[in-house]
Amino acid sequence: MPKLAHAPSYYAASAHSQPARPPLTADIQVDVCIIGAGYTGLSAGLHLVEAGFTVAILEAAQVGWGASGRNGGQIVNSYSRDLDVIERQYGADTAQALGDMAFEGNRIIRERIAKYQIACDLKNGGLFAALNPKQMGHLAAQKQLWERYGHTQLELLDQTATRLAVASDRYVGGLLDHSGGHIHPLNLALGEAAAFESLGGKIYEQSPVTQIVRGKTPQVKTATGSVRCDFVIVACNAYIGDLVPELAAKTMPCGSQIVATEPLGALASTLIPSGFCVEDCNFLLDYYRISADQRLLYGGGVTYGARDLAHIEAVIVPNLLQTFPQLANVKIDYAWTGNFSLTLSRLPQMGRLGDNIYYSQGCSGHGVTYTHLAGRLLAEAIRGQSQRFDAFAQLPHLPFPGGRHFRVPLTALGAWYYSLRDKMGI
Ligand SMILES: Cc1cc2nc3c(=O)[nH]c(=O)nc-3n(C[C@H](O)[C@H](O)[C@H](O)COP(=O)(O)OP(=O)(O)OC[C@H]3O[C@@H](n4cnc5c(N)ncnc54)[C@H](O)[C@@H]3O)c2cc1C
User: Fold this and answer.
1) Which of 122, 202, 367, 389 could bridge across to 381 with cysteines, CB 3.0–4.6 Å?
2) Parallel, antiparallel, or unpaired for β 123-130 and 277-280?
């Protein structure tokens, strides 16, 4: 079978070198077998080996090959559906439980970076930028909401302060999360993989799982080997394919696209003098930041149903130029796409299939922090402390209307409606 290489991204081009991780070619036995070496799988694996478990991770391609190695690198707190919606739909107790954990993934990332000395260009500060007064009102309400749950590292910026943070005339103000920030996402994943391996964990790359044989001691099979274990964690997210049909049915893969400009030298720090990462407040949002080598990395553009876009530049560059007209003649060095997993409720799905198969998926485009929290909660549940895991696992999740064939056009229609409202400023 041909080897699956990383997407042609700026991250792949600037990734730290890695040891060879050969495919699984034997029948082995461990305590926990994890399928997928993205942040969810790596975070769970690292927590488990730290607690003394034997763990093998089977990865269809390479460490960080999925969304974890291709994303915007923005450390965004809370969830894709925020705590006010959780309060309304699931009640105060659930909102309190999830609210308490809403900033924990961010802290886990920073602890990992510090403890294992992971070189991944960490920078502090995340700015949510409002394009109109209505969005500014939402940001003010969001600050109050998060503060009610004890998250107080937030600051509202007026138009002048926002313009000082980011040199674009598009914004009327913003909300600065001092505990947000950004990282080189692939190098974070690679650093976490190295930490996991330093504690005895095993990673098998180019080892797509073809079957999970359920039972008292499940068996996870690839074309050339198998893992017998006490627990399985399914951490495949948007790339799950047909491996576990009941999990795939509850999510929809969606694409997002990013471009990286040529290195901009001194110009870079005039674009975002604060060094923060920025995301706007539109339903189909733009997100961007400056890389360690002074490129502008600019993302956006959702495709429903995970189609690859033939012309990423044509979709993203017009938005980039609307934000920074001063880059009119800029050269684009890299353009890539990756898939995240959307759920109908926009809330992540965590749970069990039977007694010993665990999963987490569907962070709906908002997963850098959540996946790190999920890894900790999966490990806690396997260790028998499932209270925090169950706070997520008890959330009801419905399949998308329209089934596998019509879920894509129906969801795209909904997104078109909301983005039209954004364009009209209502
Ligand atoms: C372009 C883009 C930009 C984004 N930007 C941001 C951002 O700035 N901030 C933010 O918070 N979130 C962002 N996200 C979302 C975030 O990246 C994801 O939510 C998160 O990385 C998901 O991690 P994961 O480990 O669950 O899944 P993935 O990282 O997708 O990992 C799943 C892994 O499972 C493997 N796999 C699948 N099937 C099998 C199998 N049968 N056998 C073995 N292995 C298998 C895959 O090869 C893959 O490596 C973005 C997503 C994309 C696509």
Assistant:
1) 389
2) parallel
pLDDT in tens, 167-189: 999 999 999 999 999 999 999 99
- Between the CA of 67 and the centroid of ligand 1 the distance, in Å, is 3
If one counts every other C-beta atom within 10 angstroms of the C-beta of residue 35, the result is 27
CA distance 164 to 230: 54
Q: What is the pTM of this model?
A: 0.95
- Return the bridge partners of 257, or none: 300, 337
The backbone torsions φ and ψ at residue 133, rounded to the nearest 5 degrees and listed phi first, read -60, -35
Q: 44 near 389, Cβ under 8 Å?
A: no
Among protein residues, the one whose CA lies closest to atom 35 of ligand 1? 36
Spatial distance between the Cα atoms of 156 and 171, rounded to a whole number of angstroms: 13
- Measured in Å, residue 55 CA sits from the centre of ligand 1 at 20
Mutate to test the pocket of ligand 1, among 9, 43, 68 (most ligand atoms within 8 A of CB): 68
Q: What is the pLDDT of residues 258-297, one digit of tens each?
A: 999 999 999 999 999 999 999 999 988 999 999 999 999 9
Which amino acid, 207?
S
In ligand 1, the atom with minimum distance to the C-alpha of 189 is: 29
Q: Which domains does the chain have, with CATH numbers?
A: 10-70+186-249+346-395 (3.50.50.60), 124-180+252-342+404-426 (3.30.9.10)
As for ligand 1, residues whose beta carbon falls within 6 Å of it are 35-41, 58-61, 65-68, 70-74, 76, 208-209, 235-240, 243, 256, 258, 287, 299, 338-340, 363, 365-368, 371
Residues composing the chain: 426
> Counting atoms of ligand 1 from 1, which one is nearest the CA of 36?
34
Dist. CA 123–CA 111, nearest whole Å: 14
